[in-house]
Amino acid sequence: MVERLGEPHAKTVNVPVQLLDIQPRAAPEALHELRVRVPVHLHRQLLSLKILRGKSLAETISTALDLYFADQARSAHGRAAEKSEA
How many helices (H) does the chain have, and how many strands (E)? Predict the structure, then answer.
């Protein structure tokens, strides 16, 4: 006999750290290692930027991520402004 289990208890939820009252272990400026798999075409673009700008791959990725998140923040701010105008 097989017993069906309910929903998994641990769901992925984006909850700000302040709401959970979790104290960060390191300063926000501290560097953390992150390993990801990226499609080959993105890896080639990052390597091209690395060579063209003469920076390390880590610096290139950091710059790319900073630009990406700044663009996302501007987009979110623009959408919020459009909703408030409507």
Answer: 3, 0
50's CB contacts (< 8 A; 6+ apart) are 56, 57, 60
Q: Please state, as a whole number, how many other Cβ atoms lie within 10 Å of the Cβ of residue 11.
A: 6
Burial readout 37-62 (b: 16 or more C-beta within 10 A, e: otherwise): eeeeeeeeebeebbeeeeeeeeebbe
Q: In the structure encoding, which two tokens stand for residue 65, read together?
A: 């991520």
**Token pair 């990406």 in the structure block, residue:** 68
Between CA 46 and CA 64 the distance in angstroms is 8
User: What pTM was estimated for this model as a whole?
Assistant: 0.52
pLDDT digit string, tens, across residues 13-61: 555 545 556 666 777 777 778 888 989 999 999 899 899 989 998 898 8
In the numeric block, the tokens 């909703």 are attached to: 83
